[in-house]
């Protein structure tokens, strides 16, 4: 057995959060420090398996001596730093960002979005019905997952997961500029003609439901999707010997989707097409047995 080399402990950094002294590991972010201190900082584009992109700007905080608000998801802690997370300036910024996002995208399936909109008093409707929207029908061009870009906030997490940070397939990228910017396949080709390998890792990191399992999409359309009634069971994928962990989401005794634990040292939340979508044989076997 190969020995795992021991590393020296990370140095702790002393800083102040909302007037209270805290200690955080050197190299960690302000968002890490806030969460460790029990402070609820809203964020949409931050992912625990991806490098921060600073795209949504909902997690901004005020740092003493800084001219602009700092994105907590990427700003590293520094010795002696004084941070205020709930100032009028930070709250106003979050309110405006949430208004802009909710006016231009459908956040109905975005976890906690409605809660944050209410908390910060955001009024997306004040921009009127002419606010920029994608306003296109969901793309249902395969049996595995659906792309509903009306829910996309351009956080780039799917692009990073498909690209150099994980899959290295580069099937999707940002096309267009300004209001015309959108997530697209190369040359806007159909997904079935692109380099997509259907690993579903883009679905794993999507924070808004713009990318979703076909099973989830169909159940939501039918009004039968109920996360409160679902159970989650983590097991090991049986397709090969890599040892990827699967979390099976089960509703009414049927697997409705598969995710992977982000803290798993083998997968870090990522799977291949077999692990993420190849669960039908379990249900077929159960039905045949019955």
From TrEMBL:
It comes from the Bacteria. Residues 230-286 form the 4Fe-4S Mo/W bis-MGD-type domain. Residues 11-89 form the 2Fe-2S ferredoxin-type domain. The keyword Isomerase does not apply. CDD domains: fer2 (cd00207). Keywords: 4Fe-4S, Iron, Iron-sulfur, Metal-binding. Pfam families: Fer2_4 (PF13510), Fer4_7 (PF12838), Molybdop_Fe4S4 (PF04879). Residues 143-162, 188-216 form the 4Fe-4S ferredoxin-type domain. This is 2Fe-2S iron-sulfur cluster-binding protein. The lineage of its organism: Bacteria, Bacillati, Actinomycetota, Actinomycetes, Kitasatosporales.
């Amino acid at each position: 057995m190969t020995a795992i080399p021991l590393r020296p402990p990370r140095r702790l950094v002393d800083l102040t959060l909302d007037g209270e002294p805290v200690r955080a590991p050197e190299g960690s972010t302000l968002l890490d420090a806030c969460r460790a201190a029990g402070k609820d900082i809203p964020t949409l584009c931050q992912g625990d398996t991806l490098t921060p992109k600073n795209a949504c700007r909902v997690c901004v905080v005020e740092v003493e001596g800084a001219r602009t608000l700092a994105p907590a998801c990427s700003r590293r802690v520094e010795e002696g730093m004084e941070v205020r997370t709930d100032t009028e300036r930070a709250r106003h910024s979050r309110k405006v960002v949430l208004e802009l996002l909710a006016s231009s995208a459908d956040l109905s399936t975005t976890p906690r979005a409605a809660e944050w909109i209410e908390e910060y008093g955001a009024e997306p409707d004040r921009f009127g019905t002419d606010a920029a929207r994608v306003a296109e029908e969901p793309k249902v061009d395969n049996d595995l997952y659906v792309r509903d870009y009306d829910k996309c906030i351009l956080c780039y997490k799917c692009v990073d997961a498909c690209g150099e940070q994980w899959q290295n397939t580069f099937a999707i990228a940002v096309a267009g500029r300004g209001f015309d910017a959108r997530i697209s396949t190369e040359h806007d080709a159909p997904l079935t003609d692109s380099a997509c390998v259907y690993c579903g890792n883009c679905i794993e990191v999507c924070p808004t439901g713009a990318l979703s399992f076909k099973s989830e999409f169909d159940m939501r359309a039918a009004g039968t999707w109920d996360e409160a009634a679902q159970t989650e069971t983590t097991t090991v994928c049986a397709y090969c010997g890599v040892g990827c962990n699967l979390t099976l989401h089960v509703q009414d005794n049927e697997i409705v989707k598969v995710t992977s634990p982000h803290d798993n040292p083998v997968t870090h939340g990522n799977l291949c097409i077999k692990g993420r979508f190849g669960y039908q044989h379990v249900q077929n076997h159960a039905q045949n047995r019955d």
